[in-house]
Write a structure and sequence with these properties.
alpha/beta, TIM Barrel, 8 strands, globular, DNase_TatD-rel_CS, metal ion binding, metal-binding, hydrolase activity, acting on ester bonds, TatD/YcfH-like
């Protein structure tokens, strides 16, 4: 019924109650999860968990925080991970200008992983924090529209959304859409084409307003679905069906081309 297209259930913050968190997600109607890796080692941990559960898939990639360590060995390790049928995307990859990670290293790793995604034919999960113009420019320059993917935790305005949409990307909408002061994101949610919306939690981070201050978890994607439904004048069930179908199509599940 619901698809959390970006979570980190393999994160150590779930070590004490991972099985219970997964059970709560199932009880909340979450039938599919995409566990997103931030390094080769992290993606391997995500894959180990995914192999144990139906409906759990993996994105493998190197986050901007680890970009300085990008090398040929990292690329070969990711390429090997991509051969696993549960690995359905390259991510999360991109740029982060909020923290002081070396920008040249970030760009080098980002471009290399876009090229890898095109080589293996997998969509991208994009991390973009305070770097909208450069992220979009690099996606355009590297031909990322060939594979498309998800602009994770979308936080820019409508002009940036249009550029991402023109490249075939969907917008990942999470807990911030529920924050009282985030009218700008809600305006984007009202405008984006229905086939370009997916839901996410980014758990254990970015809990929705109803659980603000708590550890986020996949079950809380229901709050995101409710907020999107309210903005678009749809029922909860319609949003769940629509966004889950979008996620399956982007990640080429259920035999989707």
């Amino acid at each position: 019924m619901l698809f959390d297209t970006h979570c980190h259930l393999h994160h150590p913050r779930f070590d004490a109650d991972r099985a219970e968190a997964l059970a709560r997600a199932r009880e909340a109607g979450v039938t599919r999860l995409l566990l997103v890796g931030t390094s080769v080692e992290d993606a391997r941990a995500a894959l180990e968990l995914a192999e144990q559960h139906k409906g759990v898939f993996v994105a493998a990639g190197v986050h901007p925080e680890g970009a300085a360590r990008w090398d040929g060995g990292t690329r070969r390790a990711l390429l090997d991970l991509c051969r696993h049928p549960r690995v359905r995307a390259i991510g999360e990859v991109g740029l982060d200008y909020h923290w002081d990670y070396p920008r040249a290293d970030q760009e080098r790793a980002f471009r290399a992983q876009i090229r890898l995604a095109r080589e293996v034919g997998l969509p991208l999960v994009i991390h973009d924090r305070d770097a909208h113009a450069d992220v979009l420019r690099i996606l355009e320059e590297e031909g990322a529209g060939e594979v498309g993917g998800i602009l994770h935790c979308f936080s820019a305005g409508w002009p940036e959304a249009e550029r991402g949409l023109s490249l075939g990307f969907a917008l990942g909408i999470g807990g911030p859409v529920t924050y009282p002061r985030n009218d700008a994101l809600r305006a984007v949610v009202r405008q984006v084409p229905a086939d370009r919306l997916v839901l996410e939690t980014d758990s254990p981070y970015l809990a929705p307003q109803a659980r603000r201050g708590q550890r986020n978890e996949p079950a809380f994607v229901r709050f995101v679905a409710e907020a999107v439904a309210a903005e678009r004048g749809l029922s909860f069930e319609e949003v769940a069906r629509l966004t889950s179908g979008n996620g399956a199509r982007i990640l080429r599940l259920d035999g989707a081309p």
